[in-house]
Write a structure and sequence with these properties.
five-stranded mixed β-sheet; PAK1-Kinase_Regulator; WD40/YVTN_repeat-like_dom_sf; WD repeat; Methylamine Dehydrogenase, Chain H; mainly beta; about 450 residues; WD40_repeat_dom_sf; single chain
Length: about 450
C-alpha cells in the first residue's frame, strides 16, 4: 500500500495573527513546542458554546435509562493507576442550562509500579463484558489488569466526600517483562493483541489469551550525527528508543516514531529550535489509512476523519482541517489553518493539557454526531466537554471560533501523565434478593454448627 507522504505546517492561530501583523509570507509553526496531545475527529463548524463547570462529589443512584457512565483511567508520577467513573445525566448533555450534577465515583486504585506510569492502553470490549488495561512504566514492566465495563453502583462515601464504588471484577492479572528499558507506548489494535514499544528500541507483540510474546521487532538504530542538547545516553552509546507507533487500519503496515529521525535543516524549516532533540514523538493514521501525521510533540492520537486536534500549553485544544492545505511558495511547507478551538482561559482552563481523548456519545441532534472530550491537566484536573457535530459541520476555514461546552471538572490531587477512557455499556450483575440472602446466611450457620 502506498501512503501519501505530505509535510504540512501546523500554525497556531495566535502565531498566525502575529505573523500577519508583521506581513510575513512564511510564518513558522511554534505549536510543536507548546503542544502536549492531539487527535483527529470529524469535520465541522463553529458555534460559541456556553462553558459551565459543575462540581461533582455527590452520591446519586445510577439510572441506565437517563445516565451515561464513562470510565476514566489516569496514570501519574506517583506510580498510581487511578480509575474514576463519571455518571453523566442525559439532561446535562441535552440542555446547556441544566444544573444536573455529574458524579465521580472511585472505581479502582492500583499501585503496582515502582516508577512513574508513562503510558496506558485499554482494549476493545471482550465477550464477558470486560476490558484489558495495560500500563507501562519507567520500571521496564507492563502491568495488565481486567476491568469491568458495567456501570458501578455507588456504595460508600468517605470522610472527604469521595464516592467509592469498588468492583470485584477490577483485578490485576500480572506483569510482563518483555522490555529492558522504560516502556513508552502501549496499544491494543484488537482485543487479542497487545503492542508495546520501549526505549530499548523494540516493539513487542503479545497475545492476550496467555500473554505470551509472539514477536519482538527491532527498530533500526540511528546513525550518530552529533549529540543533541540534553542527551543522557551513556558514554559510547547512542540515543535510541521507539516513542510511538501507529498500526494501519488494515493491520498490515506499521509506522514508528523514534529518536534522531530528522536532520537539522528540516527541523529549522518547521520552526524547531537549534537545541531541539529532533525526536519523532507521535504518529497516527487517518481512518482511511491514506494519510498519516508524524509529529514532533509529546502526544498524538487519532479519533476520526477530517480534523486534527492538538492540545496546547495554555489549556486549549485546537482543531485543524487536514483535508485542505494552504499552498505555499518556494520551499515553504503548506499550512493547516485552525478552524476551531476548545477550552482555554475563556473556559477557565489555563494549565497545560497533558493528554485527552475523544469519545462518541449519543447526540441531541439526530442529524449530527456528538463527542465527549475528556482532558487531563498537568495540575491533576480533569475536564469534560460536550462537543456537538452541528458545531463542526461546515466550519469556517478562516475562523478559529470557540466550540464545545464544559460540563464538569474534577480534581485528582495527582500529577497526571497519561489518560484513557471508555463508555461503560456492560450489564450490571443482579443483586441477590432478600430471600436468597437469608437462605445463604442460614446455610452458613448450618455449616458452622456441623
Amino acid at each position: 500500500m502506498a501512503a501519501k507522504r505530505k509535510r504540512v505546517e501546523v500554525v497556531d492561530p495566535r502565531e498566525a495573527k502575529r505573523q500577519s501583523a508583521t506581513k510575513s509570507n512564511t510564518p513558522k509553526a511554534r505549536l510543536a513546542a507548546t503542544s502536549s496531545a492531539s487527535e483527529i475527529i470529524p469535520n465541522g463548524a463553529h458555534k460559541n458554546g456556553a462553558h459551565k463547570a459543575t462540581t461533582e462529589e455527590d452520591d446519586t443512584t445510577y439510572d441506565p435509562a437517563s445516565t451515561l457512565t464513562v470510565q476514566i483511567v489516569t496514570g501519574d508520577y506517583e506510580r498510581i493507576t487511578h480509575g474514576l467513573a463519571a455518571a453523566i445525566p442525559a439532561v446535562a448533555l441535552s440542555n446547556k442550562d441544566s444544573d444536573a450534577n455529574i458524579t465521580f465515583s472511585e472505581t479502582f486504585l492500583f499501585t503496582a509500579h515502582t516508577a512513574s506510569v508513562r503510558c496506558l492502553a485499554i482494549s476493545p470490549k471482550t465477550e464477558n463484558d470486560k476490558r484489558f488495561l495495560a500500563t507501562g512504566s519507567a520500571d521496564e514492566r507492563i502491568n495488565v489488569y481486567s476491568i469491568s465495563t458495567a456501570p458501578p453502583r455507588p456504595s460508600t462515601t468517605t470522610l472527604n466526600g469521595a464516592v467509592i464504588a469498588e468492583n470485584a471484577n477490577n483485578r490485576s492479572l500480572g506483569s510482563l517483562t518483555h522490555h529492558d528499558r522504560a516502556v513508552a507506548r502501549l496499544t491494543f489494535p484488537a482485543k487479542g493483541k497487545l503492542f508495546s514499544a520501549a526505549e530499548d528500541n523494540t516493539i513487542a507483540i503479545s497475545r492476550t489469551r496467555d500473554w505470551t510474546m509472539l514477536s519482538s521487532i527491532k527498530a533500526p538504530i540511528p546513525k550518530v550525527q552529533g549529540r543533541p542538547s540534553g542527551d543522557t545516553a551513556a558514554p559510547g552509546e547512542v540515543p535510541t528508543g521507539v516513542n510511538d507507533f501507529a498500526i494501519h487500519p488494515s493491520q498490515k503496515l506499521m509506522l514508528s516514531a523514534g529518536v534522531l529521525n530528522f536532520d537539522r535543516e528540516l527541523l529549522n524549516h518547521v520552526g524547531e529550535g537549534k537545541h531541539s532533540s529532533g525526536e519523532g514523538r507521535r504518529v497516527t493514521w487517518d481512518d482511511a489509512g491514506e494519510q498519516y501525521v508524524y509529529a514532533i510533540m509529546p502526544a498524538l492520537q487519532e479519533a476520526g476523519n477530517g480534523l486534527l486536534a492538538i492540545s496546547t500549553e495554555d489549556g486549549r485544544i485546537l482543531f485543524y482541517d487536514i483535508s485542505e492545505q494552504s499552498p505555499a511558495a518556494g520551499n515553504a511547507l503548506p499550512q493547516l489553518g485552525c478552524v476551531a478551538q476548545l477550552g482555554g482561559k475563556s473556559a477557565g482552563v489555563s494549565s497545560r493539557i497533558k493528554d485527552f481523548i475523544v469519545l462518541p456519545v449519543p447526540s441531541v441532534n439526530a442529524q449530527a454526531p456528538a463527542w465527549l472530550v475528556v482532558a487531563a491537566g498537568s495540575d491533576g484536573s480533569l475536564w469534560l466537554w460536550y462537543l456537538g457535530g452541528e458545531e463542526l459541520n461546515g466550519a469556517d476555514k478562516a475562523s478559529s471560533a470557540q466550540v464545545g461546552r464544559l460540563i464538569a471538572t474534577h480534581k485528582t490531587q495527582s500529577r497526571i501523565t497519561c489518560l484513557g477512557a471508555f463508555v461503560m455499556d456492560g450489564k450490571q450483575a443482579e443483586l441477590p434478593t432478600a430471600s436468597a440472602a437469608a437462605e445463604a446466611e442460614k446455610s452458613e450457620i448450618d455449616d458452622d454448627s456441623d
